[in-house]
Amino acid sequence: MTNRRIAAALISAVGLLSVAACSGGTSADGTGNTSASTAVLTVASSASVTTWDPVASFSTEAMYMGNLYEPLLWKNPAGSDEDYTPALATAWTTSDDGLTWTFDIREGVTFHTGEALDAAAVQQSLEAAKERGGASFIWAPVETIEATSDTEVVMELSYAAPVDLIVSSTYGAWIVAPSALDAAAKDEKYFESGIDAGTGPYALESYTAGEKVVLKKYDDYWNAEEAATYETVDVAITSDAVTAQQMLTAGEVKYSTQIPLENIESFDGNPDYDVNVSKSPFNFVALFNTTRPPLDDPAVRRALSYAVPYDEIIEVGAQGYGTQSFGPVPDGIFPFDADVSQYTQDLDRARELLADAGHADGFDLTLTFASENAAEKRFVPLIKDAFAQVGVDVEVKAQLFNQQWEDAKAEPTKAQDIFVLYYWPTYSDAGSDNLWSLFHSSDAPFFNLSYWENEKYDALVDEAGTYTATDRDRAQSMYSEAMEMLYDEAPGVFLYDAQAVQVVPAGLEVPTANENYPFTAFFAGFEPA
């Protein structure tokens, strides 16, 4: 888990909520027909590549990976008629006890290397993900993976777990050609020159580090209905969002995956663009250091929770593109529950609780946030100002996230009082991730930077996880009870769930943004209107 969360945290520090990447281009004659002018989709994106190895991948190259590789299942957005869309598995079943999962593997699929997909290739890929993947921790419950025939894979678990969610993750479940896995086992740098070995609708044509990624349509793609419209996708890696916006408005690119949130309003109402807003898995939380006074007192933490200006934080930090959180589980991701209690700003109530707790004269606190995160930079002063109104003086420290994280891990009793964190689950189970990672007790807490310990909470979360695969309603009920405990004990302030925003040039068809794959631009779905 450590390697996973360090990587995720470094992404989160620079993680301005990117514009969801789904779009296409228009033909020269305006008819919408694919022509020479639409053969190439030009894109500006901030997504750099830390590795082309699909097993080791755990960073922003996820934008491209979902075009080159496929999992066994795709997780559909919240509210869809079906929870999953079959990908390289056509059907799947689980035993009543949730310990055995069987997947039927799709026939007639070829890798970009020319090899045929079969169950043995799936077994080899998932074993590699379990052994050395960037997100290998998600495979912890799986004891064995066996190709029982050319078209069947059976997984045996040590405890019941939602394998359907695991095999559909945005990290850690790609199916890779056997020859490439063999080569990578001999040479860990095998993929780094720009090699791909997937089954997806695009293949990697070329790569210039830090500058350009070029994808080419894979003509033998198995799914004719979902085959790519554009022959080529030419991505300019552009780290600055303002520059990317200028490239879009100047016509240098047909699409940009990043527009500064503060500039979205300039596109809203412009007939040349559509602005689409949807759910994302990202949320912001401010974690209280519960190891020392006065924040070791739940009454004080409740008081400060009442002092937070939630609506203003969303308006300023998210530029209006967010919703107040119901605990640490983002809307659209299991086990979200809109009936979980929320705090609202009530300064009089905050002062009353502080006085009752013996702090009528206030006290001093330190707050740290990631200086790279523009949203945090915008909303943290609002917290400082609101707390000052109830007599609490906050010293704000902006730090590079890796330094903020290192300081918080060093010695809890000497660490910050409030840690502002931008977070998201690795796969679509925020019970086993957010609720566990952020608040479960352990001898060496990883992202539990409130350092909060509660045996009843731990037991609820642990037991709920055992029912996710076999009785999801029961798991939901237990997770909801755990989230009510977080409201009551207030080890953190749950600020807002960030929304995904798409700025789409008019006349383009775009696929619905999917909160389960927030970093991936599914270019095969881009087409002229």
UniProtKB/TrEMBL annotation:
PROSITE patterns: PROKAR_LIPOPROTEIN. Pfam families: SBP_bac_5. Transmembrane segments: none annotated. This is Glutathione-binding protein GsiB. Residues 1-28 form the signal peptide. Belongs to the bacterial solute-binding protein 5 family. It comes from Nocardioides dokdonensis FR1436. It comes from the Bacteria. InterPro entries: Peptide/Ni-bd, SBP_5, SBP_5_dom. CDD domains: PBP2_NikA_DppA_OppA_like_7. SUPFAM superfamilies: Periplasmic binding protein-like II. One of its GO terms (cellular component) is periplasmic space. GO terms for molecular function: peptide transmembrane transporter activity. PANTHER family: OLIGOPEPTIDE-BINDING PROTEIN APPA, PERIPLASMIC BINDING COMPONENT OF ABC TRANSPORTER. Keywords: Signal, Transport. Residues 84-443 form the Solute-binding protein family domain. GO terms for biological process: peptide transport.
